[in-house]
Fold this protein.
Amino acid sequence: MKNYSSDHIKNVVLVGHSGSGKTTLAECMLFEAGAINRRGTVADNNTVSDHHELEHERTNSIFSTLMHAEWKDTKINIIDTPGMDDFIGEVYSAFKVADTGIMVLNVAHGVEVGSEIIWEYADHLKKPMLFVANHVDEDKADFENTIDQAKERFGRKVTVVQYPYNQGLEFNSIIDILTMKMYVFGNDGGKPEKKDIPAEEIEKANRLHNDLIETIAENDEGLMEKFFDKGTLEESDMQKGLLISIRNHELFPVFCMSAKHNMGSGRLMGFIDYCCPSSAHMNPEKTSDGVDIPCNANNPAIAFVFKTVSEPHLGDMSYLKVCSGKIKTGDDLINTATNFSERISQLFVMQGKKREIVTEVVAGDICATVKLKKTHTNNTLAAKGQQVEMSKIIFPESKVQYAVEMLNKGDEEKIGIALHHIAEEDPTIIMEHNQELKQTIVNAQGELHLAAVKWKIEHLYGIKIEWVKTKIPYRETIQKSVKSDYRHRKQSGGAGQFAEVHMIVEPYYEGMPDPKDVTVRGREEHEMKWGGKLVFYNCIVGGAIDVRFLPSILKGVMEKMTNGPLTGSYVRDVRVSVYDGKMHPVDSNDMAFKLAGMMAFRNAFKDADPKILEPIYDVEILVPGDYMGEVIGDLQTRRGIVMGMDSEGHYQKILARVPLSELHGYSSTLRSLTQGRGKFTRKFAEYAPVPFEIQQQLIGAHKEELAEA
Ligand SMILES: Nc1nc2c(ncn2[C@@H]2O[C@H](COP(=O)(O)OP(=O)(O)OP(=O)(O)O)[C@@H](O)[C@H]2O)c(=O)[nH]1
Ligand SMILES: [Mg+2]
């Protein structure tokens, strides 16, 4: 591998709807650059990019893959990403380190939903974007329609620089608006023959050429003047103008391609080399405090970890972008999040799964290393004295939640370790062990994502699992005020036990006035760790119970609150006023008062019209207008209440409140109701009483559970 300076390294990421041809295009790019001598295909499981066993099983990309090609004097790092929405986390991390996004469209299908979803993310990053109109060799190819749709969805900055001369099964020629030439390919694609544009296409080509020049000139006043003077621009001016417009996210050039037949990829590579910025030409990356870090190889070393691959027995592989300076084999860099010193034992440039050892990597380049001990995705490694943390990748929030169930008892400990590794590798997997529900819960992007996690757990860690519904963290409370007395007395041989407690148990609400008809002597307010409150009043007069026993009574009440009488769930929002009782000079003790407090509370609770509460979530759904009716209809079957509607860009926004127990599988339902166009987020809102029939069902189920135990 040659040494490349920062301004001769270009980082591109291939994105777009699943099946648009990204992996096939990456293969063409590598082949055209001479990095491989044979083009593999996705169907034959022999592409450089889709090298993982799971990708072979599915014939789809599941992980982002780093590759590179050397084109003239430039190193082009290519990151191929999966198009399926469930794996969008891979797109986020790849975009973080790429300077240019290449959105691949399938012109036989038009603009598909996966591309729209990715666009929303890509657009807010304001990075340079190119479009590749792929599949032009298909019978149903419709380049014009796809470009019209792209302009409608992605804006007028989408600008044609190439179009197919003969799209469809006969396709072999591209008309290039920049060079004003026609490229004619042989049967095997590759290097085309340059010809003059046929007479019947000249007018269209001239019109598009002028449109392009005008758009370029609009972004640079100097060029605008030249353009008005001469009515055209010279090639060097065009290049300069293109670079500026592309870098400023003001022009999204469209290329046309048949990746299947390798027609068009060479010209794309040439364009990336000629007109796309390197990291050194982009605005500087920022630290999390907003400080600029210029991409300059002469400054101190700073590198950012954007991806980690963790496989048992192989250890972790960390992917780095060098943001500043150079990193060399043998360097000791500091993880600025932990101050832990990491030795860079080896550095690799990657070609899919193949690694090539290098000794030095400069600012603007991407590489991989192994054996970092305590460094993960989103960490910064820097030369000693550089206390900087590069701004982090903010991964999308999870959309589905399932609990994991082991098929073999005894795997409990192993699954914790496996999931921990998987979550470290994939930050869009969030694992938690829920003590209350006694379940290990995994939050993910969707069912396909979970299927991939299950595959890893089974194949790489040898644990058989199933995804099951998460339990619902119900709560219990009461609805009316009840007085209750309890006497605890035990006489068995030696010292006896005696305690009597009188209390009023009431539903508690914020701002409630102090209890009447009793003498308030003390008030304690306890926030329960599962939410809600217990407010405890000392209203004892005449020393009926010694104050030193009050903490024991409180303890008894609190213990009962961990195990509500209806379903065994936690109790919340109650007020207890202890106003009378009795004690015995010898037999009364803490234990006796705790028991009496617990029993008085339990009895009162049962009579106080107890209610089961369920968690309610605020759900925000975005759907194209056409699907509104169906989505709202479905929400109603889920006991959802629509709180508002609004429009947001191309979407209609629905705000609703839905019980958590009704949200299971919602991601899949929404996907099928909206053909993948809908999306939603959810956030805990409050606890609310369940309807009567559901309360009866839950009580019945709890009784059965107790009987079985
Ligand atoms: N006819 C035709 N088929 C193509 C073209 N490009 C890709 N394909 C085929 O389309 C299918 C999907 O191609 P991939 O390269 O796997 O698509 P992808 O965008 O990587 O898909 P994901 O990894 O799922 O996101 C494969 O069968 C390819 O052979 C093309 O230009 N023309
Ligand atoms: Mg792919």
